[in-house]
Design goal:
single chain, about 750 residues, alpha+beta, Beta-galactosidase, Chain A, domain 5, 12-stranded antiparallel sheet, 4-stranded antiparallel sheet, 14 helices, about 25% strand, MGH1-like_GH, 6hp_glycosidase-like_sf
């Protein structure tokens, strides 16, 4: 509770406002409109805000109970609106068209149904525009296209349940805070007509704002404050604003409002909110334009491919989120719009050629939260990189350990890998020195945790933590060839490859820093790991790598995509790497769109399972990098083509977090996973990683060199260009052109003295 918040058993006083428990002041409710079928959704995002509606732009009071729990306006893991429902004469408008193409805004065009004898169908045009920029803004233009004057009622119903995002996802809570009612009606900041809802019917008093409020179990007071603009409502019924409109033939009237989200009377969003929708839109477009000027701009000779790339560039912009002074990419909307370890690190690695600033900010942010103590509840340990940070009421009340939560086995070696990769692209000596102590602490954590079994493994310690702590973190995915769950501690195959890569790459940095003791030790440990890994993880009768070693050191011998992550990191012997590559492309794994997470021959296979048969774009992009590293270029390009064909069929040409593992047959479309995040960070990042796979850029900014090794465009693309590509201090433009099976590269422009070596 803040110092400015005072309480009595009946009232709460906060900065001049008085609240009482909601049950002491019942208000009338406006009926919601029941949909005939589950509605598809539109999603918009700006920094730490996101908003999910149906295709009309509504969140019906009936929607959440009908299988759309993700709908709402969210900030900092709290839902600030769970109803926003426009009605005309108590009926839902009829959709004509809608889009969330811009990402931070949505536009809807709808009309009226037939209403008795006085309003013919499709005579009223309703144009809605909603924009996020530190707050939610909506403007509504209502036009009369009939030949006579019409009178009708337009209403917008609001509600806010202020539930924690973990509740939305299905976590149970024993207790909740309490909804509040604001005692004084306000006009801006003052009382209207000197009358309060205590002495006047709250369903009819006039005011220019509505306030919905809640007090959490931690004492924090959350508010959704709705300020109306343009034409004020004629009256309120509870939290429903009602306009009695009279429109002459072809007359248009404009309505609008702004929703500010507050915690203890301070803005919940880190973004300073604009005043009007026009200002909000201008601010967003200006920031986006600045982003576009900073990134590598990529284009081809094919329009559909360009649309996929442009969408990915825009989604990387949308997914950026502020955490204090720094920004990194949040993992995905709606469920994972926050700071992650693994997801942010993999995405930052995927996008180094797009904008290395993402990696820099990610490294600094995660170093800031690096583990310092041993804490079983949060699974924190000195040197460990976090898994997930949450800011909602359940985290603040210690009902979940995400303050932050450290239950991830792979984020720490991935941080070390990105630390080295970022230096290779940028030669950022200052950052290298700044984070060197964090790198040593991270390596010490790995060494401490590999002492007992020689492998980095995980085992849940927190009662509210994750049972599985690799990238496949659902409860049913670590299975053997019989489909039986493995017992921990679990040592995943790809995690050992990350450790191997971290040791070898950090050894080079240690040698450069004249720490020969560390360089020699890390290289020797990497060599030893490679020998042991190829002995202990190899399943001879499958001629394939085990998913993991279980708590008894026995191979978890199912056929999965995980060993594909090891291919480009050098951990396999040459022969075994080729065996893995060949097996991954067998029909039980490759479904025509991509490689499944689990073989379709497994008893545990489920094409709709989150990690037991579905296909993940980022998983496949990493495998494609591995195929390319083995010289299997045609096979890597085939994987690219399947993923590109899948993406081109998605709404807005946007790759989903995952899709179902059903076979690609003829003209059938890829089958969507029902609750996949979109946009999602490492799915979006996979577009850039696949481009990197094609052109095969190998930066060495420290030695002022860029190698381009045997670039190869797929048959679906003839030309590909990179503008504003940054390697160290140099900015250059590259152009690739395919002729038959050969791809040529030329340096079109260069600003700097970088040496570019093109190797065929």
């Amino acid at each position: 509770m803040t110092p400015d918040t005072l309480m009595t058993p009946e009232k709460i006083f906060l900065d001049g406002k008085t609240f009482i428990p909601a049950e002491q002041l019942p208000i009338p409710e406006w009926p919601c409109v029941v949909s005939e079928r589950p509605q598809p959704t539109l999603t918009v995002k700006d920094d730490d805000l996101f908003f999910v509606t149906d295709t009309i732009g509504n969140i019906s009071g009936c929607s959440l109970s009908e299988g759309n729990p993700s709908m709402g306006l969210f900030c900092c893991d709290t839902r600030f609106l769970n109803r926003l429902e426009l009605q005309i004469e108590g009926r839902s408008p009829v959709l004509l068209s809608s889009t969330a193409e811009k990402g931070f805004s949505l536009s809807v065009l709808c009309t009226n149904p037939r209403i008795d004898e006085r309003l013919r169908a499709e005579t009223i045009g309703i144009r809605r525009e909603i924009v996020l920029n530190g707050a939610l803004f909506e403007e509504i233009e209502v036009s009369n296209y009939s030949t006579t004057t019409v009178n009708f009622e337009l209403s917008i119903s609001f509600d806010a349940d202020f539930v924690d995002l973990f509740e939305v996802r299905g976590y149970d809570r024993e207790k909740r805070g309490r909804l509040l009612r604001l005692l004084e009606p306000t006009t801006g900041e003052g009382i209207v007509d000197g009358v309060s809802p205590v002495t006047k019917d709250p369903s009819t008093f006039r005011e220019e704002s509505l306030t919905l409020a809640y007090q959490g179990l931690d004492g924090s007071v959350m508010e959704s404050r709705i300020l109306f603009q343009h034409r004020q409502p004629d009256y309120f019924k509870g939290y429903t604003a009602v306009w009695q409109l009279e429109l002459a033939s072809h007359e248009t009237q404009k309505l609008g409002y702004r929703v500010n989200m507050l915690k203890n009377n301070q803005s919940s969003s880190t973004v300073s909110a604009a005043i009007t929708l026009g200002q909000a839109k201008a601010a967003e477009l200006m920031e986006e334009q600045h982003w576009v000027q900073q990134i590598t701009r990529i284009s081809s000779d094919k329009s559909i491919f360009n649309r996929v790339i442009e969408r990915a560039e825009q989604d990387m912009y949308l997914l950026r989120q502020s955490f204090g002074k720094h920004k990194t990419v949040s993992a995905g909307v709606p469920w994972f719009s926050t700071l992650f370890g693994r997801d942010s690190l993999i995405t930052a690695s995927q996008t180094l050629m797009l904008n290395s600033q993402i990696a820099k900010e990610t490294l600094i942010l995660l170093a800031k939260y690096q583990g310092k103590i041993d804490d079983e509840w949060r699974e924190e340990e000195p040197g460990k990189i976090l898994h997930e940070l949450r800011l909602g009421e359940m985290a603040r009340c210690q009902e979940i350990p995400h303050t932050p939560y450290y239950g991830t086995v792979d984020a720490t070696p991935l941080w070390l890998m990105l630390y080295a990769e970022h230096y290779a692209w940028t030669h950022d000596q200052e950052l290298l020195e700044l984070l060197w102590p964090n790198a040593l602490a991270a390596m010490d954590w790995i060494d401490r945790n590999t002492k007992q079994t020689s492998y980095l493994s995980y085992f849940r310690k927190s009662k509210r933590g994750l049972a599985n702590q690799g990238w496949k973190d659902s409860g049913d995915c670590i299975v053997n060839h019989k489909g039986e769950l493995a017992n921990g501690p679990i040592a995943l195959c790809e995690v050992q490859a990350y450790v191997y890569a971290a040791k070898t790459r950090l050894a080079e940095i240690a040698r450069m820093k004249k720490r020969l003791d560390l360089a020699d030790r890390w290289l020797e440990e990497a060599r030893s790991l490679k020998v042991r890994f190829n002995r202990d993880f190899w399943v001879e009768d499958q001629d394939f790598c085990a998913l993991a070693l279980d708590g008894d050191g026995k191979p978890v011998d199912s056929i999965t995509s995980n060993p594909g992550h090891c291919l480009h990191l050098g951990l396999f012997t040459h022969e075994r790497a080729y065996s893995v590559a060949e097996r991954l492309r067998a029909p039980d794994m490759f479904n025509g769109w991509g490689i499944r997470t689990l073989s379709s021959l497994s008893p545990a296979y489920n094409p709709m399972g989150y990690h037991i048969g579905s296909v993940w774009p980022h998983d496949n992009a990493l495998i494609a990098m591995g195929l390319r590293s083995l010289g299997l270029i045609d096979q890597a390009l085939e994987l690219f083509q399947g993923l590109f064909d899948m993406t081109s069929q998605q709404p807005y040409e946007r790759p989903p977090e995952l899709f179902c593992g059903y076979e690609r047959n003829g003209d059938n479309a890829p089958v969507q996973y029902p609750v996949a995040c979109t946009p999602q960070a490492w799915a979006t990042g996979s577009i850039f990683q696949l481009l990197q796979m094609m052109v095969n850029l190998v930066p060495d900014a420290q030695n002022n060199c860029l190698r381009i090794i045997d670039p190869a465009l797929p048959e679906s693309i003839n030309r590909l260009s990179f503008h504003n590509l940054r390697v160290g201090p140099t900015i250059l433009d590259l152009e690739f052109e395919r002729s038959g099976t050969t791809t040529a590269c030329r340096v079109a422009k260069k600003r700097g003295n970088l040496r570019v070596v093109i190797e065929a």
